[in-house]
C-alpha cells in the first residue's frame, strides 16, 4: 500500500522518521480538501514537503486486519465517516 511504501522507503530511511505517531515534523491532513491544503502549506513555506496518497479501501483495511497486520497512523482515513459505534467483522 502507498502509505507503507512511504514509511519504509522515504520517511524512515531518508528523513529519519521511525515513529510517525510521535514525530513532531509530521502533520496529517485528511478529507476532501487535503490536496489543496497540502499545496498551500508547501507553497507558503510552512511545510518543506508534502505527500498525497490514494485512499485505502475498506477491503484493504479488512485484508490487513485479517492478516493480523497494523496500518500506519492516519492511513485509514476514508469518507464519509461512519457514525460512532462498534464495527464487527464476521469470521
Give the helices and strands, then pairings.
Elements: H1 2-11, H2 34-44, H3 58-66
Low-confidence stretches: none
Helices, by number, come to: 3
In percent terms, what proportion of residues is strand?
A: under 5%
Give the SSE order as H and E letters: HHH
What's the end-to-end separation, in Å? 23 Å
Coarse shape: globular
State the total count of DSSP E strands: 0
Largest sheet: none
Helix content: 25-40%
Derived from helix and strand composition plus strand pairing, the structural class reads mainly alpha
What do you see in this structure?
With 91 residues, the protein is mainly alpha-helical. It has one domain (2-66). Helix content is 33%, strand content 0%. The chain contains three helices and no strands. It has helices spanning 2-11, 34-44, 58-66. The mean pLDDT is 85.
What key phrases describe this protein's structure?
91 residues, mainly alpha, globular
Overview in brief:
The protein has helices at residues 2-11, 34-44, 58-66. It is mainly alpha-helical and 91 residues long. The longest helix is centred in the middle third of the chain and has 11 residues, at 34-44.
Amino acid at each position: 500500500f502507498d502509505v507503507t511504501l512511504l514509511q519504509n522507503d522515504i520517511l524512515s530511511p531518508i528523513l529519519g522518521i521511525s515513529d510517525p505517531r510521535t514525530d513532531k515534523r509530521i502533520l496529517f491532513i485528511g478529507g476532501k480538501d487535503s490536496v489543496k491544503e497540502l499545496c498551500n502549506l508547501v507553497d507558503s513555506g510552512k511545510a518543506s514537503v508534502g505527500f498525497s496518497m490514494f485512499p485505502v479501501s475498506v477491503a484493504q483495511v479488512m485484508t490487513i486486519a485479517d492478516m493480523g497486520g497494523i496500518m500506519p497512523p492516519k492511513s485509514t482515513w476514508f469518507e464519509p465517516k461512519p457514525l460512532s459505534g462498534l464495527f464487527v467483522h464476521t469470521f
